[in-house]
Design a protein that fits this description.
The complex is a heterodimer of chains A (254) and B (172). Chain A has ten helices and no strands. In chain A, helix 1 runs antiparallel to helix 2 and helix 2 runs antiparallel to helix 6. Chain B has four helices and seven strands. In chain B, the strands form two sheets. Chain B has a four-stranded mixed β-sheet with strand order 4-7-6-5. Chain B has a three-stranded mixed β-sheet with strand order 1-2-3. In chain B, strand 5 and strand 6 form a beta hairpin. The radius of gyration of chain B is 19 Å and the shape is elongated. Classes of the chains: A mainly alpha (254), B alpha/beta (172). Chains A and B meet through helix 2 and helix 6 of A and loops of B.
Chain lengths: 254, 172
C-alpha cells in the first residue's frame, strides 16, 4: 500500500488546511444572510481565499504524507476525529459581532503564521504562505475595521462585541499549543514557532481591542483538543452538512 | 532552457516557443473577458522540449481564484488546436502574483471596460498615483464603498464627480 515514508510535516500542513477549510465553510454560511450586500460579498470573498489556501495545503499534505489522497478525499471522506482544525474556526457564526471577533482573532493568528511560514524550509509551503499573506492582510483589515466600528460604536454593538469576545477568547490559547512533532518541525525550519506566534499575535490584537474599548476575557478555561481530532459539539453538524452531498453521490462530477 | 543530450532531437527553435507563448497568452480571463492572461501577467512561462512536449506555467491571481481551472483548460485546448497535442499546464505559486505584472495594454483595456485599473507602484512599492480615478468621468474624487466586490481582485468605489459606482482592480 503505502511505500512512501510519511513526513511529519504532512500532519502540520493538514492542521492549517483544515483551519482554512472549516473557516471557509463557516463564512460561506453567511452567503445571502449577511447584514448588508457588501458584507455578504466580503465574507464570501474571504471564504473563497481560504478555500484556495486549503486546496493548496491539501495538495501539499498529500505529497508529504504519502497517501496519494486528493483534495476531495481530505475534505469529504474523512471522519470527524480525523479533522485537526483548531476549535476556534469551527465555532458557530452567532451574530455578526461573533463572526467579526472570530475573524479578528483568527486572521491575526493566520497572518502571523503565514508571515513566518513564508521563510519555511519547505519551499512549497513557503510559496503558499507568501501568497496567503497578501490575502489574509485584507481579511485582517476587514475584521479590524469592524471591530473598531462595533466595539466603539453604540451601547448595543459594544455589548454584543464584548459578549462575543468573552465567548471566543478561551479558544485562542489552543492556537499556540505545541507538541513534540511541532517542536521538531520548528527545529527543521519547516514550521512556525508557536511561542513566537503568541508574542506577535498579542502585540497585534491587544491594541485593536483597546482602541475598540473591548476587554479580553479573563478566564482560566482553555478548551483544547482540535489538533488531536477532539471537536466541539457543533462540528459534527457542520461536517454532516458539508459532506453529505459528496457522500450521497460518490464519484459524481459537474 | 531546453538541454539536449546525445542522440536527442534538436531543441525547438525559439520561434516555436514564441508562437506557443503568444497563443497561450491570448486566452481571456473568463471573469473579465477584456483581459488576456498575458495582460494580467499570470502567464509565467512556456517551454517546448526536444520531443515537442509543451509546458506552460500559469499563476493564480488569488489562491481561490475560481477562473484558474477554466484558464488552464482553455490554454491546453488552444495549444492542442495549434498542432501541439502534448501539453501540460502547471500552476506555479512562487513568486506570488502582483498587479505590478499587469501590462499597460491591460490597464488601458480595463479602464475602457469601466474598471479602474490597479495603480502602478515603484520598486519601493509606493503608489505612483495617489487617487483612484473614475473610469467613467476621470475624476480623482472617488471613495471606497467596500473593499471586496464581485471578484476577489476588485473593490467597489463610488465617484463623487459623476456619482457612478464602479469597480477598482485593487493593487495586490
Amino acid at each position: 500500500m503505502n511505500t512512501v515514508a510519511a513526513d511529519p510535516a504532512g500532519a502540520y500542513t493538514l492542521r492549517h488546511a483544515d483551519d482554512c477549510l472549516m473557516l471557509s465553510h463557516r463564512l460561506a454560511e453567511w452567503s445571502s444572510r449577511a447584514p448588508t450586500l457588501e458584507e455578504d460579498v466580503a465574507l464570501t470573498n474571504i471564504a473563497l481565499d481560504l478555500l484556495g489556501q486549503a486546496r493548496a495545503l491539501y495538495t501539499r499534505t498529500a505529497e508529504l504524507d504519502g497517501t496519494g489522497r486528493g483534495e476531495d478525499d481530505y475534505a469529504f471522506l474523512r471522519e470527524e476525529r480525523e479533522f485537526v482544525n483548531c476549535l476556534l474556526v469551527e465555532q458557530e457564526n452567532g451574530d455578526f459581532a461573533t463572526t467579526v471577533v472570530r475573524q479578528l482573532l483568527f486572521s491575526t493568528y493566520q497572518l502571523e503564521t503565514w508571515k513566518a511560514l513564508s521563510a519555511s524550509t519547505d519551499t512549497t509551503v513557503a510559496a503558499i504562505a507568501a501568497k496567503a499573506v497578501k490575502e489574509v492582510t485584507y481579511h485582517l483589515d476587514h475584521a479590524t475595521q469592524w471591530t473598531l466600528r462595533l466595539g466603539d460604536g453604540t451601547a448595543e454593538s459594544h455589548r454584543r462585541m464584548q459578549a462575543a469576545l468573552e465567548r471566543l477568547w478561551p479558544y485562542t490559547s489552543e492556537l499556540f499549543e505545541t507538541d513534540a512533532a511541532t517542536d521538531e518541525l520548528v527545529a527543521r525550519g519547516v514550521a512556525a514557532d508557536p511561542a513566537l506566534l503568541r508574542i506577535a499575535w498579542t502585540a497585534c490584537v491587544e491594541p485593536v481591542l483597546r482602541e475598540a474599548t473591548l476587554e479580553p476575557a479573563s478566564t482560566s478555561w482553555t478548551p483544547t483538543g482540535g489538533r488531536r481530532g477532539l471537536h466541539t459539539e457543533c462540528f459534527g453538524y457542520m461536517l454532516a452538512e458539508m459532506q453529505h452531498l459528496h457522500r450521497s453521490h460518490p464519484g459524481a462530477r459537474w | 532552457m531546453v538541454t539536449t543530450r546525445g542522440g536527442a532531437p534538436a531543441a525547438s527553435p525559439p520561434a516555436v516557443v514564441d508562437r506557443i507563448r503568444r497563443l497561450a497568452g491570448e486566452v481571456v480571463d473568463p471573469e473579465i473577458p477584456v483581459l488576456t492572461i498575458e495582460d494580467l501577467g499570470i502567464l509565467r512561462d512556456a517551454r517546448v522540449d526536444a520531443f515537442g512536449h509543451v509546458e506552460i506555467d500559469v499563476t493564480p491571481t488569488y489562491s481561490g481564484c475560481p477562473a484558474l481551472d477554466l484558464i488552464r483548460a482553455d490554454v491546453a485546448q488552444r495549444v492542442r488546436d495549434a498542432g501541439y497535442p502534448n501539453v501540460t499546464v502547471n500552476v506555479v505559486l512562487s513568486p506570488a502574483w502582483t498587479t505590478d505584472w499587469m501590462s499597460d495594454a491591460g490597464r488601458r483595456k480595463l479602464r475602457e471596460y469601466g474598471i479602474a485599473p490597479p495603480r502602478a507602484r515603484d520598486a519601493g512599492m509606493t503608489l505612483l498615483q495617489l487617487a483612484v480615478e473614475c473610469p467613467v468621468c476621470g475624476s480623482a474624487h472617488t471613495g471606497e464603498v467596500a473593499r471586496f466586490a464581485s471578484t476577489p481582485c476588485q473593490a467597489l468605489r463610488r465617484c463623487a464627480g459623476c456619482a457612478e459606482p464602479f469597480h477598482h482592480f485593487k493593487e495586490h
